[in-house]
Specification:
By secondary structure, the protein is an alpha/beta fold. It has a single domain, classed as Ribokinase (UDP-N-acetylmuramoyl-L-alanine:D-glutamate ligase, 3-Layer(aba) Sandwich), CATH 3.40.1190.20. Helix content is 33%, strand content 22%. A 9-stranded mixed β-sheet has the order 5-4-1-8-9-10-11-12-13, with helices on both faces. A 4-stranded mixed β-sheet has the order 3-2-6-7. The structure holds adenosine-5'-diphosphate. The site of adenosine-5'-diphosphate (ADP) has 19 residues, from α8 and α9. Adenosine-5'-diphosphate binds next to α8 and α9.
Length: 320
């Protein structure tokens, strides 16, 4: 795949996940240490598919931070945008797997290193080299990482990058639902590619309808592509000129963590490879079929990063 760069900005952390469902982490017989963080997952997803990617964010100068930096490197993601905080610890999430399969998160962010990234610490040359600049919104919640987030977006935009946004709503992290909606919408009209899940669409519109009218109520003039992911049902796509659905793949899902990030990584990889997918519906549908396949494969294994597919795995799903 092409030599253009996808630069992903935001948090990387470790999820502590119990080995059984229906009990808290403290009551579980064991737990897994699962590296994650949506923007880092996207960088690794695209790198596994052959994309040139980099991660920008802050980690603690502790064993977890160095472990995460090592995972990025081992996956071929540039760490030139990583800074280490001498005082604060790497972000951690303690997960409860509820009996109904849903996950509940408790975060160590007291503050964690990712929240302490300052605008002055940004590697601006790296950000200026981005062809696509992708971000989530956890880094919008507090200063100084909010200021770093806004500056990085601005610098990437001025250098000509396509801005890609996935709100990645994790409500417990926000002071209130209202604040979450307000902050997400405060950067909404900057992004040119936006991916939301069906749940996020409901949250942001305040309506329980998942239809064209509700998706298009989020449309803005800078947007080139809006995607609504629908879990096993695939996704809906909207551009200025056309919209439609691309069906998902039937797989035996065991853990949906990272499916959306895998989908976005695949999409961005294909966009930098051929920008005309944003204007050509037939090409876009092919790309979204590929992204749906990546999302589907990611659900077939536990954890996010270990489950992100290679090109060969995607092609074998196509042959089934
Ligand atoms: P998010 O992870 O952001 O909530 P989704 O759960 O909608 O997003 O998943 C993103 C994409 O991954 C979907 O559009 C779909 O292509 C794929 N996917 C997710 N869950 C499944 C599933 N159970 N079976 C098949 N594909 C899935």
């Amino acid at each position: 795949m092409g030599g253009d760069s996808i630069v992903c900005f935001g948090e990387m952390l470790i999820d502590f996940v119990p080995t059984v469902s229906g009990v808290s982490l403290a009551e579980a017989p064991g737990f897994l240490k699962a590296p994650g963080g949506a923007p880092a997952n996207v960088a690794i997803a695209a790198a596994r598919l052959g994309g040139k990617t980099a991660f920008v964010g802050k980690l603690g100068d502790d064993e977890f931070g160095h472990m995460l930096a090592g995972i990025l490197k081992a996956n071929g993601v540039s760490g030139d945008g990583i800074t280490f905080d001498k005082g604060a610890r790497t972000a951690l999430a303690f997960v409860t797997l509820r009996a109904d399969g849903e996950r509940e998160f408790m975060f160590y962010r007291n503050p964690s290193a990712d929240m302490l990234l300052t605008p002055e610490e940004l590697n601006l040359d790296l950000i200026r080299s981005a062809k696509v600049f992708h971000y989530g919104s956890i880094s919008l919640i507090v200063e100084p990482c909010r200021a770093a987030h806004l500056k990085a977006m601005e610098v990437a935009k001025q250098a000509g990058a396509l801005l890609s946004y996935d709100p990645n709503l994790r409500l417990p992290l926000w002071p209130s639902a209202e604040e979450a909606r307000k902050q997400i919408m405060s950067i909404w009209d900057k992004a040119e590619v936006i991916k939301v899940s069906d749940n996020e669409l409901e949250f942001l519109t305040g309506s329980n309808k998942i239809d064209d009218e509700s998706a298009l109520s989020l449309w803005h003039n800078n947007l080139k592509l809006l995607l609504v992911t629908l879990g096993e049902k695939g996704c809906r796509y909207y551009t200025k000129n056309f919209h439609g659905t691309v069906d998902g793949f039937h797989v035996k899902a065991v853990d949906t963590t990272g499916a959306g990030d895998s989908f976005v990584g695949a999409l961005l990889c294909k966009i930098v490879d051929d920008w005309s997918v944003l204007e050509d519906e037939a090409k876009l549908k092919e790309v979204l079929k590929f992204a749906n396949a990546c999302g589907a494969i990611t659900t077939t294994k536990k954890g996010a990063i270990p489950a992100l597919p290679t090109q060969a795995e995607v092609l074998s799903l196509f042959k089934e």
